[in-house]
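Lab meeting, item 3. Inverse folding demo.
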């Protein structure tokens, strides 16, 4: 409860000053877009908070959201599909740091798939000229 009150008040203070600090609140469905997951997520989870009751506005007195679990982070970053479990052999803190420092696996694969034919043509040209 203290962390949520702190984040809420801190965001309100910065909003009043015209600064950009805030927290990212997402609903509990698969279609929401989130803010980036960072390696500092383990500290307070303010980048991506899960709205536990989609009917509440989550003001200072409206309950509190939660941060994602390491398993949810693994799904968000594309390591596994929904319903699958990813083996995380490290502490939650270490897992949050690792997922926050990672690239999104499906995005990396898509970029690699786009680059692959170009690399193959370069290699083919180099081997045929020698």
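The presenter then showed the designed sequence:
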């Amino acid at each position: 409860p203290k962390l949520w009150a702190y984040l809420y008040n801190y965001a309100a203070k910065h909003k009043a000053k015209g600064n950009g600090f805030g927290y990212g609140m997402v609903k509990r469905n698969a279609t929401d877009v989130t803010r980036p997951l960072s390696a500092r997520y383990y500290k307070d989870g303010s980048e991506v908070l899960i709205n536990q009751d989609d009917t509440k506005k989550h003001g200072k007195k409206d309950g509190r959201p939660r941060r994602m679990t390491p398993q949810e982070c693994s799904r968000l970053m594309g390591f596994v599909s929904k319903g699958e479990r990813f083996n995380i052999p490290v502490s939650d803190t270490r897992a949050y740091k690792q997922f926050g420092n990672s690239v999104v696996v499906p995005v990396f694969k898509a970029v690699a798939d786009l680059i692959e034919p170009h690399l193959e043509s370069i290699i083919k040209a180099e081997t045929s000229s020698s």
